């Protein structure tokens, strides 16, 4: 049985509140944090990017699982902020982790679900015994146009999952994916910032695909929402995941442990994956986890995991839990964001 | 400064430093930076004692007031300087306080 | 060893917009050759000291460039050892005379810095450091600031101690027409100036300067005059982090001990000295490492006024690098010229009474190269 052997998550420590961003742009503050349901978001330092974030999360996964990087036979990094348009982030990360040369590497892009697509693709490599371990990473230092509404929530984080067949802490019982050509949010190749279709990003986009993939998977595994202990959905804001969970029949207590958006914002490809890490930080043997990501353009990857008894032993080595990182923060003002814009766009 | 080949050679050494920790011997806060580091000011650089080796390294994710002599620090991998638009990005060692 | 300083020539140090590197090198050289009582064609070799001109402008081959501009067709070479280029050029010129190959040679240190931007200059100067230091975003002020911090941590040296070096050197420079900053400054001014790299302010650092200095050296010691009786070079790691100690320059100790031994004198015999104060802490370290005072006591030694004109051992009567200026390749040669003039009793208001033995101390980078010369009448 293929499953998660170890994992790691990294959330940069700087935080800024939506109200500070609104104030920078001279906007009406109102009750912005309350209406978004997002109180603060993570901000990366000027010397961090998708590659450095990936290294941090992957290294934590390697350490927690006590895995030799040379035994990783496949690596994918899903992101919409790969530092290069041409040149894989995954090989730079693999080199710096000490993975040697005997591995498959591929960079993935599918808006916020590029990371989870990697989990599905690489699980096949393990199941087919083509590699002992594989490493699927979701990492983003998200870009948004300054002063656009997305700026309140677009954040940064990374999560890495090592899959294998031995000593798994959570079995990957099944997965499915639901895709269509839906232009809700996009960035043309020469454009600096993404564009979006406003309210079009709701019902025909996020909801159609999350609902589509989730219903499909529940049917496939012949399970009900009540059979699960945890449910994790992609979190572009605090409202959408709560709405889709309710529509599907999941409760707020199932949602809460993986609900990370309120205090870190939306780290795009890492969103649902950081949520999964947060759940694994506390889940007990035998518990079942339902996860469904969403990526604009559009598609959703849904998964069912079951926690094994290995989790008890594994947890003794876990140091940087998601909750600990959410709490380990330093507030900054807009100046770091301004520096990041100047650095990233080489102004 | 850094060419693709020299960055490639440098990157190969990095994995041996992952997970290393050490102590901070001395540090300074730089307000006037050399080319490629202007956007980072002010920033902290110090001399770090790792086991068997001392290195000059930038200190990140902290304020000067948080540092103490012999402060325990750990290695992190970050971007080095500011690559020009068309250049290869260089990654390297920095430290952050434990 | 007795090598005669037969002639000297020195341009004004400062922001010299009208002068090119060639202009500066020629001016100093012609003055030195004339002072030596020689014709240009009697100079058999030219040693040009320069650190960053090639990097800033793309112009290398400075040995030939300068020599040929003086119609000299003999030996020529450019010498580089970061900020110790001048001192090292003098040392190598001396070796060429001792070998018997030449009898009269010219050493000219010249630097033209102000055409370039401060950022380009700062980066070029970091060529004196290591790749690891450049990767860490270090600058020369930062490297010396790390040494200052270590010294403050170990010996209780204070920012006031550091500032007193700057105040004293400015006082000396106020009597030197050739200095870049011929005016005094107060302790407050030094302490309250903008911080460049903690704990240093702008006034803890030597400036960016254009200038040139030249000396004609001769192996003919038949006539009285000023002689170089000791010349030594010592080397240490380029990387500050790899040194055995952050609070001393081992190369200063080694080079000075060797030079003093060559000259057959003790440090207590030295009446006047020009030391390498690229940053205030450097002068404090020099006082200790040369042996003028105990290790750790350098700050107090300066603050008490022992190195001021009229004190026990006047240091940097030219104004030092801080106040006279630091055209990198020229500094080591300027130091020889200042001590020569002191020994010739030609230093005017800056004259140290009875100066008959002097020392120059020139450092490259954060201490990787140190050159020490002893001069006597």
Number of helices of chain A: 13
Which chains share the greatest interface? B-C, 33 and 32 residues
Give the SSE order of chain A as H and E letters: EEHHEHEHEHEEEEEHEHHHHEEHHEH
Oligomerization status of the protein chains: heterotrimer
Count of DSSP E strands of chain B?
5
Regions of chain B with pLDDT < 50 over 5+ consecutive residues? none
* Overall outline of chain B: flat
Runs of chain A in which pLDDT lies below 50 for 5 or more consecutive residues are none
CATH architecture verdict of chain B: Beta Barrel
Q: Strand portion of chain B, in percent?
A: 35-45%
Question: How many DSSP E strands of chain A?
Answer: 14
Q: Estimate the helix proportion of chain B, in percent.
A: 10-25%
Largest sheet of chain B: 5 strands, antiparallel
Overall mean pLDDT of chain B stands at 94
Describe what this molecule looks like in 3D.
The complex is a heterotrimer of chains A (347), B (98) and C (377). With 347 residues, chain A is of the alpha/beta class. Helices cover 35% and strands 24% of the residues of chain A. Chain B has 98 residues and is mainly beta. Chain B has a single domain, classed as OB fold (Dihydrolipoamide Acetyltransferase, E2P). In chain B, strands 3-2-1-4-5 form a 5-stranded antiparallel sheet. In chain B, a hairpin with a 2-residue loop joins β2 and β3. Chain B is flat, with a radius of gyration of 14 Å. Chain B starts with a helix and ends with a strand. With 377 residues, chain C is an alpha/beta fold. Chain C is built from 14 helices and 11 strands. In chain C, α4 packs across α14 and α8 crosses α11. Chain C is globular, with a radius of gyration of 19 Å. Chains in contact: A-B, B-C. At the B-C interface, β1, β2 and β3 of B face α5, α6, α7 and β5 of C.
């Amino acid at each position: 049985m293929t499953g998660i052997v170890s994992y790691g998550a990294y959330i940069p420590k700087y935080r800024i509140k939506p109200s500070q961003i609104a104030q920078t742009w001279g906007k009406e503050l109102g009750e912005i944090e309350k209406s978004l349901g997002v109180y603060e978001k993570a901000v990366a330092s000027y010397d961090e990017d998708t590659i450095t974030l990936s290294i941090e999360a992957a290294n934590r996964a390697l350490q927690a699982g006590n895995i030799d990087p040379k035994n990783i036979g496949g690596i994918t990094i899903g992101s919409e902020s790969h530092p290069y348009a041409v040149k894989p982030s995954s090989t730079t990360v693999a080199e710096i982790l000490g993975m040697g040369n005997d591995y498959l590497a591929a960079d993935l892009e599918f808006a916020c679900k590029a990371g989870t697509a990697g989990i599905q693709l690489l699980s096949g490599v393990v199941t087919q015994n083509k590699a002992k371990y594989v490493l699927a990473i979701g990492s983003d230092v998200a870009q948004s146009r300054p002063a656009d509404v997305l700026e309140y929530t677009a954040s940064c984080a990374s999560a890495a999952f090592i899959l294998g067949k031995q000593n798994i802490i959570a079995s990957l019982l099944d997965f499915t994916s639901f895709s269509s050509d839906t232009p809700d949010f996009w960035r043309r190749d020469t454009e600096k910032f993404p564009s979006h279709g406003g309210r079009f990003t709701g019902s025909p986009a996020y909801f159609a695909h999350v609902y589509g993939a989730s219903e499909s998977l529940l049917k496939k595994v012949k399970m009900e929402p009540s059979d699960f202990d945890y449910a994790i959905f992609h979190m572009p804001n605090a409202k959408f995941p709560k709405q889709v969970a309710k529509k599907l029949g999941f409760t707020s207590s199932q949602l809460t442990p993986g609900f990370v958006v309120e205090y870190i914002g939306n780290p795009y490809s890492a969103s649902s994956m950081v949520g999964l890490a947060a759940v694994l930080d506390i889940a007990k043997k035998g518990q079942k986890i339902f996860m469904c990501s969403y990526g604009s353009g559009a598609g959703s990857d849904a998964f069912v995991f079951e926690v094994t008894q290995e989790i008890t032993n594994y947890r003794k080595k876990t140091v940087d839990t998601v909750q600990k990182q959410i709490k380990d923060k330093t507030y900054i003002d807009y100046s770091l964001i301004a520096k990041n814009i100047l650095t990233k766009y080489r102004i | 400064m850094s060419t693709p080949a020299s960055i490639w050679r440098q990157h190969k050494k990095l994995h041996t430093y992952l997970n290393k920790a050490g102590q901070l011997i001395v540090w300074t806060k730089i307000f006037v930076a050399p080319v490629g580091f202007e956007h980072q000011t002010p920033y902290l650089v110090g001399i770090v004692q790792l086991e068997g080796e001392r290195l000059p390294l930038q200190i990140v994710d902290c304020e000067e007031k948080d540092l103490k002599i012999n402060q325990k620090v750990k290695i992190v991998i970050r971007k080095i300087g500011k690559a020009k638009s068309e250049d290869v990005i260089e990654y390297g060692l920095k430290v952050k306080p434990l | 060893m007795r090598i005669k300083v037969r002639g000297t020539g020195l341009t004004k140090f400062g922001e010299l917009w009208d002068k090119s590197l060639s202009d500066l090198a020629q001016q100093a050289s012609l003055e030195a050759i004339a002072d030596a009582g020689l014709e240009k064609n009697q100079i058999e070799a030219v040693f040009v000291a320069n650190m960053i001109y090639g990097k800033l402008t793309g112009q290398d081959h400075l040995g030939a460039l300068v020599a040929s501009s003086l119609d000299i067709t003999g030996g020529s070479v450019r010498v580089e050892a970061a900020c110790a280029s001048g001192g090292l050029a003098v040392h190598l010129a001396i070796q060429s005379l001792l070998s018997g190959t030449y009898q009269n040679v010219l050493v000219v240190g010249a630097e033209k810095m102000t055409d370039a931007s401060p950022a380009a200059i700062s980066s070029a100067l970091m060529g004196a450091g290591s790749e690891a230091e450049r990767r860490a975003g270090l600058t020369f002020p930062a490297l010396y600031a790390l040494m200052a911090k270590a010294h403050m941590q170990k010996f209780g040296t204070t920012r006031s101690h550091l500032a007193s070096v700057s105040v004293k050197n400015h006082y000396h420079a106020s009597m030197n027409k050739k200095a870049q900053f011929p005016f005094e400054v107060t302790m407050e001014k030094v302490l309250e100036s903008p911080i460049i790299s903690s704990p240093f302010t702008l006034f803890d650092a030597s400036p960016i300067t254009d200038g040139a200095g030249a000396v004609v050296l001769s192996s003919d010691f038949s006539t009285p005059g000023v002689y170089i009786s000791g010349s030594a070079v010592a080397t240490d790691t380029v990387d500050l982090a790899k040194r055995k100690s952050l609070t001393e320059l081992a190369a200063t100790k080694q080079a000075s001990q060797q030079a003093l031994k060559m000259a057959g004198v003790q440090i207590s015999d030295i009446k006047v000295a020009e030391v390498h104060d690229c940053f205030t802490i450097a002068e404090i370290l020099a006082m200790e490492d040369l042996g003028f005072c105990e290790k750790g006591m350098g700050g107090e030694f300066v603050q008490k006024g022992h190195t001021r004109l009229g004190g026990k051992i006047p240091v940097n009567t030219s104004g030092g690098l801080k106040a006279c200026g630091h055209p990198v390749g020229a500094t080591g040669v300027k130091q020889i010229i200042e001590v020569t003039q002191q020994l010739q009793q030609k230093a005017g208001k800056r004259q140290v009474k009875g100066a008959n033995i002097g020392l120059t101390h020139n450092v490259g980078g954060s201490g990787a190269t140190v050159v020490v010369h002893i001069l006597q009448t």
